[in-house]
Design brief:
The complex is a heterotrimer of chains A (280), B (223) and C (261). Chain B is mainly alpha-helical and 223 residues long. Chain B has 7 helices and no strands. The longest helix of chain B has 36 residues. Chain C is built from 10 helices and 11 strands. The chains are: A mainly alpha (280), B mainly alpha (223), C alpha/beta (261). The interface between A and C is medium-sized, with 20 and 28 residues.
């Protein structure tokens, strides 16, 4: 076989292998989705959204408590995490830049991102739940915030750094003070990227179970008081799916389906947004 | 809005045009002086043309600056080169007219009998002036001028000029045969008249340069 | 010592024994440079890469201050004051000395907001005044007709040449005294370049202009004075008409005839 023929053959082999791998990956995703849809879809009914949790065997069992609880915990986490993350990312990109402190912060942030979420849960248990004496929604939100901040910090830092330095210089050259350069020019330029980072951060955090296990714990009933243990969708899935009761298991599937759809939507939205901005 | 380059080119063109105008006017004055035997007018010719050398240098320096600053190509390059060489020819023509005026002033007061030659001399002089006028027309009218037309007219004028000069040569030779004592003087008259003939040749060079600038190709002055 | 032509007209800026060292560098990038800049004229700075011309340009509006550790020495006089002193009000300075960059830097906002940016920074809020001055600036930059129907559109929709004109409009809107151009056409095509050059020549009526260019022919076409720099020093400053015909320094002659750089 000639050299060229050999090269072409190797080319084709690699192409086939990579395509196969991609297809296998997609197949798994489709498999997961199909199982979710199959089991979850027929468990869905209007009552799920209107009824609170009930003991097994009660046909009036719903997921309202879990949905609302999840919403509240994640919202508070977002409320704390996003400003913190963005401001920290801004510091890194605009002020710290390549300084030693900034690099250390970046490294710590990366480590935090790969920290096991259950460890973070344990940490929050130690500093919030134990002193408080009981589980609470606050503890849950704090745990999720801690997970969210490094994600948003990193994406903000990266997106802001993508804004070309000449753009900043042009604003300075017109007599703008630094904070205005950041807010009026740099943020605007990185708007899409930062928003995507936030969406992806929320999506990630909304699917966490372990950190909520011993912080917000769980509640079988609707509770909107953050100082009390609060139900969350993720922990509910865990509880219901591992229970021996069929109707609870069905609710678990429904919850899993709802959660997956929510996170899938957030992810797709995030990526569409980024694509749209790039295409412009 | 005109660019700096356009303004510079217009400026140079204007200067050459003015120079040409002055030389033509001086030439006409010279002819008048001869026809009316007015010695003062001959002197005036010299005054008008006194500083043409400097004016030529000035134009050349402007052209050099334009080359240095604007790096012209194609038509712009050809025009600038043509102008540069035209200035040379124009100054020579001007100097020729000056010297002619000076020498003619002496010849008319000498013992030579120029009256028999007068008609031919006047025709020769007019022909030289016409050649200059056709060129001046092109400068004044710029793009509206019919270049090929005027070019041909200059060539025709030059041809006539050559014939007239040959006639004058013969006439003067006859005079020399008749008036041997004044032979040196008549030879000098012929030399002066040759300046008019040379000026017509140079006008053809200028016309050739103009055609080169307009049409391109290669410079062909001496074919 | 540099050969500097005598400038009899008013000066916009005067550089005196100016020295500049980048953060962490062993030696200064600009060494004891003295140079006058004539008012309402275009001064071009030419020289091979690394000669310090952009470094010098960015010193005029203290752009180097954005990055920590850079050191200035000597004086740059502007309106009878040395602008290198730490106390200098940089915001006010940058309004009086504007800058146009190599890559067009339209902000991610509408065309109107771009041009109004500098004015809004100064506190001008009156809508009529803003509209009027925006229109004037866009006309001065010879781009009004192209954009007057889409002032609210995002500036990123404009072509490279148009964006550069927008940046020029933005800079002249605040009515500066000096405009610094840092290789303004090197990222543009020849037609846009010619348009920008024409614009720069027109602007000279109102502002003093300093333009850094690596394109000698551009300096020759556009400027009144040309300064040739080499290895951080000013070699020669002369009237453009004279410098390109008879440079006084051999180094200048070698650069202009393409023997190096």
């Amino acid at each position: 076989m000639t050299h060229t023929q050999k090269r072409i053959l190797i080319n084709n082999i690699v192409m086939v292998l990579s395509t196969l791998s991609a297809i296998i990956g997609i197949c798994f995703l489709l498999w997961i989705l199909s199982v979710l849809v199959a089991n979850g879809l027929d468990a869905i009914s209007a009552t799920i959204f209107m009824q609170e949790g009930a003991p097994p065997g009660n046909i009036n069992g719903g997921l309202k408590h879990a949905l609302i609880g999840q919403l509240i915990i994640v919202s508070y986490a977002t409320l704390f995490g996003v400003p913190f993350g963005i401001l920290a990312g801004t510091y890194l990109s605009e002020y710290g830049q390549k300084s030693k402190l900034a690099e250390i912060i970046r490294d710590i942030s990366d480590i935090m991102m790969s920290a096991p979420s259950i460890v973070i849960g344990a940490f929050v248990y130690a500093i919030v739940v134990a002193p408080m004496g009981h589980f609470s929604g606050w503890a849950g939100s704090i745990a999720l915030t801690i997970i969210m901040i490094p994600i948003i910090l990193r994406t903000t830092d990266d997106m802001l750094q993508l804004v070309p330095s000449t753009l900043r210089e042009a604003a300075f050259a017109l007599g703008a003070p630094k904070y205005k350069v950041i807010i009026q020019v740099v943020y605007r330029g990185a708007k899409a990227g930062i928003l995507t980072g936030i969406l992806l951060g929320v999506a990630r955090v909304a699917g966490e179970t372990a950190p909520l296990l011993f912080t917000s714990f769980n509640n079988n009933f609707l509770n909107t008081n953050m100082s009390e243990p609060m139900a969350s969708l993720t922990v509910t899935i865990y509880n219901y799916a591992t229970s021996p009761y069929e109707d609870w298991q069905k609710l678990g599937w429904a919850a899993a389906f709802i959660l997956s759809m929510f996170i899938l939507t957030l992810n797709i939205l995030g990526r569409l947004f980024l694509l749209k901005k790039k295409g412009k | 809005m005109l660019t700096k380059y356009d303004i510079k080119i217009d400026n140079i063109k204007e200067k050459i045009s003015t120079l040409l105008e002055n030389i033509t006017a001086a030439n006409e004055l010279c002819l008048e002086a001869y026809q009316s035997a007015d010695l003062a007018k001959f002197k005036e010719v010299g005054t008008i043309l006194e500083h043409i050398g400097m004016k030529g240098d000035d134009i050349d320096n402007e052209i050099i600056k334009t080359f240095a600053l604007y790096g012209p190509e194609a038509k712009e390059l050809r025009f600038l080169v043509a102008y540069l060489k035209m200035t040379n020819e124009l100054i020579r023509i001007g100097e020729g007219v000056k010297k002619y005026a000076r020498s003619m002033r002496e010849h008319v007061t000498s013992d030579c009998d120029l009256n028999a030659l007068k008609p031919s001399i006047v025709l020769l002089h007019k022909s030289s002036i016409n050649a200059l006028k056709y060129i001046l027309e092109c400068f004044k009218q710029s793009d509206d001028c019919n270049y090929e037309d005027n070019y041909r007219k200059v060539l025709v004028e030059e041809s006539m000029n050559d014939d007239l000069f040959s006639i004058l040569e013969k006439e003067i030779l006859n005079k020399i045969i008749d008036e041997k004592e004044l032979s040196i003087e008549y030879v000098r008259v012929l030399a002066s008249l040759r300046k008019l003939e040379r000026s017509c040749d140079r006008s053809v060079n200028i016309a050739n340069l103009m055609m080169y600038a307009r049409q391109g190709g290669e410079i062909r002055l001496f074919n | 010592m540099a050969t500097i032509v005598e400038i009899n007209e008013q000066k916009a800026l005067e550089v005196k024994n100016f020295e500049f060292t980048y953060a962490g560098a062993d030696a200064p990038s600009i060494k004891k440079l003295t140079m006058p800049i004539a008012r309402h004229n275009i001064t071009a700075l030419i020289g091979p890469s690394g000669c310090g011309k952009t470094t010098l340009l960015r010193s005029f509006n203290r752009m180097h201050d954005l990055y920590p550790g850079n050191k200035y020495n000597g004086e740059i006089l502007f309106k009878d004051r040395n602008i290198l002193i730490p106390k200098e009000d940089l915001i006010k300075l940058r309004i009086q000395i504007g800058m146009i960059f190599q890559k067009p830097t339209a902000f991610p906002m509408s065309i109107f907001d771009n041009v109004a940016y500098g004015m809004r920074l100064q506190g001008i809020k009156n809508k009529t005044e803003l509209s009027g001055r925006v229109e004037k600036a866009l006309k001065d930059a010879a781009i009004w007709n192209e954009v007057k129907d889409r002032l609210k559109h995002d500036a990123s929709g404009l072509s490279g040449g148009q964006q550069q004109r927008l940046c020029i409009a933005r800079a002249v809107a605040v009515e500066p005294e000096v405009l610094l151009f840092d290789e303004p056409t090197s990222a543009l095509d020849p037609i846009s370049t010619a348009g920008i050059e024409e614009l720069i020549v027109e602007l000279r009526e109102r502002v003093s202009i300093i333009i850094v260019t690596h394109n000698m022919q551009q300096a020759a076409r556009v400027s009144d004075y040309t300064g040739f720099m080499y290895l951080g020093e000013l070699v020669e400053l002369g009237r453009t008409e004279e410098l390109f015909v008879t440079p006084k320094e051999r180094l200048t002659e070698e650069y202009i005839t393409g023997k190096f750089g």
